[in-house]
Amino acid sequence: MIEQIKKGVLTGIGLGLMTNEKILEFARKSAEEAKLSTEEARKLADELLEQSEEAKKKLEDKIDEQIKQQFDRMGLATKEDVAELKKEILKLHKGQKKQKKVSS
Fold this sequence. Notes:
Blueprint: H1 2-13, H2 20-34, H3 38-74, H4 79-103
């Protein structure tokens, strides 16, 4: 019964998009309906919360990947690209100052 509840939540509701509060509320209602023991209800809630966190992480990773691909396609600079350019500019600027001191 617990496995059926978990599968239903994962496929039907989109666990990764639920808040922890909603997950706990769903687990409580499901436990009552299925007449689960307190321990089984706690275990269900813990498993759903863990799976929710995993689903959120996977979703975030996919979104980050898609954004990076779009930036690459559009030829936009990333934060890392800009940071690298700043380093190069500082290096050139320091080299220029040294040359001026030597020339003076």
